[in-house]
């Protein structure tokens, strides 16, 4: 790998941006493609598939043998609300390979005793997410049922392009949420990205089952996320 490619990869890693290192196995030489760059033809298709899978691959493009090495930021789940669903999700997420953090300003809920070995912050989402912003490799899960706590991070997640945004609540609750977000100027298309009711419809009844449904929907959104690299 040449020094220019290494610098580009290091910068992408620092900025939590995905990248693919394309190496020509026949002629030598390499180039870095950042997620979002337009790549023409079949190479663009191969690169898009690599970004979705996160797996390295050897491909043939117009008779050239290329090796694609993928560098993806670790996907993370940011949960708003230290509730029973969050406790179950905190145990499940690492098994599926996701980092998880919980934010809840309600100190009666956000206690180390209830969330041992979990990244837990008992503060307002506005303050926490300013210090550690959401990004395209973040999933936002809002489960407090309290608009004063949930609304800001939901809107922020939509603005930041999080690959998943889900919110707990009935259809009536969500209709009120939609109205509040519209008042903030969010478009109908942006609001439509919210998964509400949250989680895949598996008939979940307990907090543990709801957590399974949420994680399954997050994985689905992550693996099917839009990758724009072809023209």
TrEMBL record:
<dbReference type="InterPro" id="IPR052698">
    <property type="entry name" value="MoCofactor_Util/Proc"/>
</dbReference>
<dbReference type="Pfam" id="PF13478">
    <property type="entry name" value="XdhC_C"/>
</dbReference>
<protein>
    <submittedName>
        <fullName>XdhC/CoxF family protein</fullName>
    </submittedName>
</protein>
<dbReference type="InterPro" id="IPR027051">
    <property type="entry name" value="XdhC_Rossmann_dom"/>
</dbReference>
<feature type="domain" description="XdhC Rossmann">
    <location>
        <begin position="77"/>
        <end position="218"/>
    </location>
</feature>
């Amino acid at each position: 790998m040449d020094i220019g490619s290494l610098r580009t990869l290091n910068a992408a890693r620092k900025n939590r941006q995905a990248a693919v290192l394309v190496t020509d196995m026949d002629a030598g030489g390499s180039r870095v493609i950042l997620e979002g760059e337009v790549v023409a033809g079949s190479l663009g298709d191969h690169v898009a598939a690599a970004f979705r899978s996160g797996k390295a691959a050897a491909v043939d493009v117009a008779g050239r043998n290329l090796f694609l090495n993928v560098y993806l930021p670790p996907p993370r789940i940011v949960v708003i609300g230290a509730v029973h669903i969050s406790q179950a999700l905190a145990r499940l997420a690492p098994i599926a390979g996701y980092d998880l953090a919980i934010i809840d300003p309600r100190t009666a809920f956000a206690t180390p005793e209830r969330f041992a070995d979990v990244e837990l912050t008992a503060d307002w989402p506005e303050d926490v997410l300013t210090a550690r912003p959401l990004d395209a490799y973040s999933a936002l899960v809002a489960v407090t049922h309290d608009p004063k706590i949930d609304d800001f991070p939901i809107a922020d997640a939509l603005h930041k392009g999080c690959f998943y945004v889900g919110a707990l609540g009935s259809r009536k609750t969500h209709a009120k949420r939609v109205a509040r977000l519209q008042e903030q100027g969010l478009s109908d298309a942006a609001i439509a990205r919210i998964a509400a009711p949250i989680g895949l419809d598996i008939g979940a009844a307990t907090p543990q089952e709801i957590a399974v449904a949420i994680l399954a929907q997050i994985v689905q959104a992550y693996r099917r996320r839009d990758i724009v690299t072809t023209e």
